[in-house]
Amino acid sequence: MHNGAGHITIAPDLPPKLSSSLNPLGYHNKSTVVEKGPLRIVFLSRIAPMKNLDFALRVLSFARVPLEFHIYGPVSDSTYWQHCRELASRLPPYVHMTYHGAIPNEQVVETLSNYDLFFLPTRGENFGHVIVEALGSGIPVLISDRTPWQDIGAAGAGTVLPLSNEQAFVREIERVAALDPEARTRMRQAAFEYALRFAEDDRLVDMNRNLFLSVLA
Question: What pLDDT is stored for residue 198 in this prediction?
């Protein structure tokens, strides 16, 4: 934000409230043990070129493991969505895609908590609220390097990869799909703990308070 005096002040968005009393799988009393079966991947965002759904579909077309891919979000660009549907029609038979349409905001965390991996190869995010919501629902994320969330990999909460390396995304999906349920459960725990640490960081409130005070001054 520009404060009118020739200075620019930046503060991160405040995250949604999380509670340490929540279990690692989200806001509901679900088992922390991941069941065996195909990797369940979710994409939740606007269907628009910036969110890069076509990239995700190309990645999944190269995967050599059984997968379920579920898409949520409103269609913002009908021409782009038609392109994505054509790519989806060429997915291998062991990759099953389902489009659910848009969902209300209050259902996002509950919906995301039903999956094993959140996949958003976005072309750019200033913040990425849905990434925080995914982590807060207790699922690891696979995202591009075009977001502020660069330390997710070090925290064990997911993976950040460059869009210039499509095959790296393929390998990561195959790696996660090959993990045993215990390893996937640990990733879910790490994802939730990452979101909780972020949400409980008092510095975020102070930075936003100082931002608005500087404008008033």
Answer: 87
3-class secondary structure per residue, 145-169: CCCCCCCCCCCCCEEEECCCCHHHH
159 and 149 Cβ atoms separated by less than 8 Å: no
Taking the alpha carbons of 153, 157, 163, 164 in that order, is the dihedral positive or negative? positive
CA 189-43-37 angle, 5° bins: 60
DSSP-based three-state secondary structure for 70: strand
Sheet hosting strand 39-44, strand order edge to edge: 95-101, 67-72, 39-44, 117-120, 141-144, 158-161
- Look at the chain and report how many structural domains it folds into: 1
Model confidence over 117-138: pLDDT tens digits? 999 999 999 989 999 999 999 9
- Looking at the domain assignment, is residue 29 inside a domain? no
Using alpha carbons, list the distances in angstroms from residue 53 to 78, 82, 159, 161.
13, 11, 17, 15
Q: What CATH number is attached to the domain comprising 114?
A: 3.40.50.2000
Both tokens assigned to 97: 């895609």
